[in-house]
């Protein structure tokens, strides 16, 4: 039932995990220059390690962009109203159930 | 005085913009006032979020860091913020979806629905305590800038009223929509001015390459990691700064308020993706303005180095353009105040007051939020008036305290076993440890900033922020596992783990 309503959901579990692993690896490289901090010299007038840091940041940005807009794994406007309606109904059910319990 | 005229003009224009939002019906209901009727498009969202985060520190502080310590400063507010694109997405996707469905209008709402009233009351108090010194630092900074720009004609005490008066006007008149538009206008303004100053500074020595060649010849240490005998930009120092700044950003009120205010899923995604990328471009420029500043001004030591942004503008731009560049930093400080004050006012009205008076009408909540805005601004002026409070030192605690709320937020959305006891214990222990390190730093002579952000040997080369963060997470997990979910947590699972959210 769910896969018919939201076809992107079930196919994406493995892809999502792969993205998360890639995000974590690239984040650690954006938070600390592990290994590449030892690279000396200059490139494009700035330190080579800074160029490498920019490259990792650009790679992470591109990966985030692909994940958010091209894979169908992230929430999009086509699904939005359906999801909100279901959540709205679930929330109303909770309130009704709580009132009945009282 | 020319700078004062420019910035006053920008502020008055912003009041008009905020009032126009009000006239267009932005403040007719509580939903309109607090979350702009969930109707903001992505252009406004991007610049509003950016402006509400980037304070004067992003201009003066970062260029000062570039001047003193060189390219390692790129790990403070640039490449390290790109992960926010996915961190904000994973942590706030449910904030966006559930907020829309449940009509949430404050940061405490998800915590309240998931963990009950205890967390709903703690969150606004924690956020307020963390952000007041941060706000006071901005108000003080603006007053100092006004005194300097007016060459003493406007004294510090009079300058203290400038930012609070305008911020109160924007927010009381326009609510979230007014604030977002004001942030957008001022955000675009200071972004443009950073570009102008960057190109002017580089053009002084014949372009970017020649400028960097000159700096490299005289100060090769600015291009190195591990300079000064390994002390400047060691790996622990870089990791400490990078992680602290990024994780702190995750849990400020601004991403919550902007998630609630987004018109569409696309707008939400564009906003969180663009933030890091724009920071990389804009803050890299301010860092490099500081580095190139070595070719313009010599001998600035310690906090004096923070003046390099203004000095570089004065040396490379005509007077009127230099005034505009400094006014850009002024605008950045104003927009940060707007974002944080509005988040706090929304929290107090929608979480604390609603808890005390559940039957409060929407009009009453809006009225109270407006009173809170005025009240917070009065408190900031009073605190800034007392010169002996070490506000700049206290302000660093904002990021550390906000960051510990990430665990209850993660638990609310991703861990069914999370309990209210774990959430409360983790938050309080994290806040307590941050305060402990703050006091330790202040009394022990290390300094609060160093204790919280610089690696400490006795903490295994981590900084106080990261130790508090790790302990808060461990306490949250341990206490949640040791206690049983109550009726509130159990009931909330149906909504927070609804199949449509998978």
Provide structural commentary.
The complex is a heterodimer of chains A (102) and B (502). Chain A is mainly α and 102 residues long. Helix content of chain A is 74%, strand content 4%. Chain A contains 5 helices and 2 strands, in the order H-H-H-E-E-H-H. Chain A has helices spanning 2-5, 8-11, 13-31, 48-70, 77-101; strands spanning 42-43, 46-47. In chain A, helix 3 packs antiparallel against helix 4 (48-70). Chain A starts with a helix and ends with a helix. Chain B has 25 helices and no strands. Chain B has helices at 2-26, 30-35, 42-53, 60-69, 74-77, 84-102, 108-115, 117-149, 156-159, 162-204, 208-218, 227-230, 235-250, 253-261, 265-292, 308-316, 319-356, 362-385, 391-395, 397-403, 406-414, 420-444, 448-453, 464-482, 487-496. Chain B is 76% helix and 0% strand. By secondary structure, chain B is mostly helical. The longest helix of chain B has 43 residues, at 162-204. Chain B has one domain (2-406): Sodium/glucose cotransporter (Up-down Bundle), CATH 1.20.1730.10. Chains A and B meet through helix 3, strand 2, helix 4 and helix 5 of A and helix 6, helix 11, helix 13, helix 15 and helix 25 of B.
Keywords:
heterodimer, A: 102 residues, mainly alpha, two-stranded antiparallel sheet, 5 helices, B: mainly alpha, Sodium/glucose cotransporter
Short summary:
Chain A has 102 residues and is mainly alpha-helical.
Distance between the termini of chain A: 33 Å
**Helix segment tally of chain B:** 25
Q: What's the pLDDT, averaged over the residues of chain B?
A: 90
* Beta-strand percent range of chain A: under 5%
Low-confidence stretches of chain B: none
Largest sheet of chain B: none
Question: In angstroms, what is the radius of gyration of chain A?
Answer: 22 Å
Number of strands of chain B: 0
* Fraction of residues in helix of chain B: over 70%
How large a portion of the residues of chain B is in β-strands, by DSSP E?
under 5%
Which class best fits the helix and strand makeup of chain A?
mainly alpha
By oligomeric state, this entry counts as heterodimer
List the uncertain runs of chain A: none
Q: Taking strands numbered 1, 2, ... along the chain, how are they ordered across the largest sheet of chain A?
A: 1-2
Number of strands of chain A: 2
């Amino acid at each position: 039932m769910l896969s018919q309503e939201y076809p992107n959901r079930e196919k994406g579990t493995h892809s999502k995990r792969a993205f998360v692993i890639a995000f974590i690896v690239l984040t650690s490289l954006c938070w600390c220059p592990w290994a590449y901090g030892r690279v000396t010299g200059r490139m494009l007038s700035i330190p080579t390690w800074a160029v490498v840091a920019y490259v990792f940041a650009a790679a992470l940005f591109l990966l985030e962009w692909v994940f958010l807009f091209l894979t169908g794994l992230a929430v999009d406007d086509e699904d939005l109203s359906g999801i909100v309606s279901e959540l709205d109904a679930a929330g109303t059910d909770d309130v009704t159930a709580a009132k009945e319990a009282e | 005085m020319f700078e004062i005229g420019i910035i006053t003009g920008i502020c008055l224009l912003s009041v008009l913009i905020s009032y126009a939002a009000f006239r267009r019906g932005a403040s007719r209901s509580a939903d309109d006032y607090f979350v702009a009727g969930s109707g903001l498009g992505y252009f406004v969202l991007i610049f509003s979020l950016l402006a509400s985060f980037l304070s004067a520190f992003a201009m003066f502080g970062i260029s000062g860091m570039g001047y003193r310590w060189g390219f390692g400063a790129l790990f403070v507010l640039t490449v390290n913020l790109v992960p926010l694109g996915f961190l904000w997405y994973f942590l706030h996707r449910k904030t966006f979806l559930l907020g829309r469905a449940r009509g949430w209008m404050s940061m405490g709402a998800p915590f309240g629905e998931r963990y009950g009233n205890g967390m709903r009351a703690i969150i606004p108090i924690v956020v307020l305590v963390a952000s007041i010194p941060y706000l006071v630092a901005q108000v003080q900074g603006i007053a100092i800038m006004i005194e300097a720009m007016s060459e003493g004609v406007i004294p510090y005490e009079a300058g203290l009223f400038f930012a609070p008066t305008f911020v109160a006007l924007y927010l009381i008149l326009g609510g979230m929509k007014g604030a977002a538009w004001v942030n957008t206008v001022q955000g675009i303004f200071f972004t443009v001015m950073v570009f102008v100053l960057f190109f002017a500074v580089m053009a002084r020595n014949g372009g970017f390459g020649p400028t960097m060649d000159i700096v490299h010849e005289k100060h090769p240490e600015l291009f190195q990691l591990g300079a000064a005998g390994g002390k400047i930009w060691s790996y622990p120092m870089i990791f400490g700064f990078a992680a602290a700044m990024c994780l702190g950003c995750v849990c400020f009120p601004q991403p919550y308020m902007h998630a609630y205010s987004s018109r569409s899923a696309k707008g939400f995604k564009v906003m969180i993706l663009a933030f890091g990328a724009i920071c990389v471009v804009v803050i890299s420029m301010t860092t490099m303005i500081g580095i190139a500043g070595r070719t313009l001004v010599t001998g600035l030591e310690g906090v004096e180095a923070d003046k390099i942004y203004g000095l570089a503008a004065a040396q490379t731009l005509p007077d009127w353009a230099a005034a505009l560049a400094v006014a850009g930093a002024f605008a950045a400080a104003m927009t940060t105040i707007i974002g944080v004050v509005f988040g706090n006012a929304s929290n107090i009205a929608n979480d604390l007051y609603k808890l005390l008076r559940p039957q409060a009408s929407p009009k009453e909540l809006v009225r109270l939020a407006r009173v809170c805005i005025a009240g917070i601004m009065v408190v900031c002026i009073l605190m800034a008036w007392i010169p002996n409070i070490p506000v700049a030192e206290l302000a660093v605690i904002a990021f550390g305290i906000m960051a510990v709320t990430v665990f209850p937020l993660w638990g609310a959305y991703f861990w069914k076993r999370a309990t209210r006891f774990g959430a409360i214990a983790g938050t309080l222990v994290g806040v307590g440890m941050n305060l402990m390190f703050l006091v330790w730093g202040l009394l022990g002579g290390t300094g609060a900033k160093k204790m919280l952000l610089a690696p400490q040997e006795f903490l295994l080369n981590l900084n106080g922020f990261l130790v508090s963060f790790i302990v808060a997470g461990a306490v949250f997990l341990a206490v949640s596992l040791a206690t049983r979910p109550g009726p509130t947590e159990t009931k909330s699972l149906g909504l927070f783990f609804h199949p449509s959210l998978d």
